[in-house]
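Two folds, back to back.
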Amino acid sequence: MRTGILSVVLPLCAVLAGCSAAEPRQDGTEVSSTAGHGEAPSPAAGRTGAVSVTLSVDPGARALGAYELVLRYDPAVIRVCAVWQPGGRGFPATPLSDTSTWRTGSTPILGFVVRDAPPGRIDVATVEFEWVAQGESSLSVSVRSLYSPEGNSIPGTALVTPARLSSR
């Protein structure tokens, strides 16, 4: 039954007043992130630029129907400026995020589908940050909830890549 997931996800979205999905900026200031773990590249000297990170979820052998994650970062150094659906083998739904949290250091991000997503690790969101000040910020992501396409709570882990940003 596919209505199970909607009974779980719609209340989650209602909690995030001001939910929105943003598209990546096309102003030419984006700096590509590195693949895998480690540090993302810094913007060129004297340039404010932006950098993107990828959020992934691994529900193991289960199909993922919905997720709610919380991304944490240092708002004195960086702030979220966009959240969008990753390409490739990404989760087949646009992530939602409350834009009023983008400058707070703690941003909830959620997504849901009414069809099955493939089991195993899957990229669920790309988050673009812009620099507020020179410095470094560690990034962490925690799972608030994961659900199967049927609306059953499932275990899993979340990962942010890269886990540290530096403007130096």
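---
second:
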Amino acid sequence: MADRVNTMADKANNIAKSVVSTEKTPLNKNLLIGAGVFLVIVFLWFGYKIFVSDKQAKFGDKPIDKLTENGWEVYVTNNCPYCIEQVNILNQHFPYFTNIYNDRPVESVPTWYNTKTKEKKVGRQTYDQLLEMAK
């Protein structure tokens, strides 16, 4: 019976040691990597919302819809470097804009023409100028 008491005492002693153990357990690497990836994604998303979409927020999610609604069209040619720059700005910031024409006679290119107000803007327009036209 003394052996049985010693065995039970040893078991209790081992349980107590494991509960109050000061040994450091290694952290799960996969958990740390997952948490790091999650934080990076969250920071990128907030950065996009704060810095990239800030100007578009002024006019809604698709400011190009406002350009189209306001009656703006642009006339370009394929061999004009300013036209290529203008189309690149449109493709980068206004991917839904489709009022780009090569077949309309204009004095110089690129030319922006408003079909509602008959206003004409000659030359490449910057992103900020296009946002202004979308008001």
